[in-house]
Write a structure and sequence with these properties.
The longest helix has 29 residues. The protein is elongated. The chain has a 4-stranded antiparallel sheet with strand order 5-6-7-8, with no helix packed on it. The protein has a 3-stranded antiparallel sheet with strand order 1-10-9, with no helix packed on it. The protein folds into 2 domains: about 30 residues; about 120 residues, Rieske [2Fe-2S] iron-sulphur domain (Rieske Iron-sulfur Protein). It has about 170 residues and is α+β, with helices and mostly antiparallel strands.
């Protein structure tokens, strides 16, 4: 009676190695899929890249706050008195000197990101500007810092007028 040879079957070993490699590749891809998915841009962020504001709905002396890229942006329809006050201010005495003309495209419309430049608080609007009650920073009718620990003016986002009564932020 002949005994079976004790050497392993080469074809079977090659098949098992190929199967193990394929399973490792599939498992590695499945493990990496969530990582690749997390690198894609967030859909809601892309959708908020531009915000359109109807200016006809904002009377003089009033504001409207919209959300742009997760941040509040205030669009203020300034009165002639507010424009005159903002343009008469001495910019040399300001911490972050900018003229009102540098901060606006049309003088009657002020567009600023309503986030305090000190620690990121949301300042409340008052008649002559904004006040951050967290640390006492005050901003004038043009969004320029006039007192408190805030190091810079309220930011002006990129915006353009796309008609007489439409404003596009972003």
């Amino acid at each position: 009676m002949a005994l079976k040879d004790d050497k392993p079957d080469d074809e079977r070993r090659d098949f098992l190695m190929l199967l193990a490699g394929a399973m490792g590749l599939v498992g590695g891809t499945a493990a990496m899929w969530p990582l690749f998915g997390s690198l894609a841009p967030v859909r809601s962020y892309d959708e908020s890249a531009f915000v359109t504001v109807d200016l006809a709905a904002i009377p003089a002396g009033r504001s409207r706050t919209v959300v742009w890229k997760g941040r509040p942006v205030t669009v203020r329809h300034r009165t002639p008195e507010e424009i005159a006050q903002a343009r008469a201010e001495d910019t040399g005495a300001l911490r972050d000197p900018q003229t009102d003309r540098e901060r606006t495209v049309r003088p009657e419309w002020l567009v600023v990101v309503s986030v305090c430049t000190h620690l990121g608080c949301i300042p409340t609007e008052r008649g002559e500007g904004w006040f951050c009650s967290c640390h006492g920073s005050a901003f004038d009718a043009s969004g320029r810092v006039v007192s408190g620990p805030a190091p810079a003016n309220l930011a002006v986002p990129p915006y353009e007028f796309i008609g007489d009564t439409l404003l596009r932020i972003g």
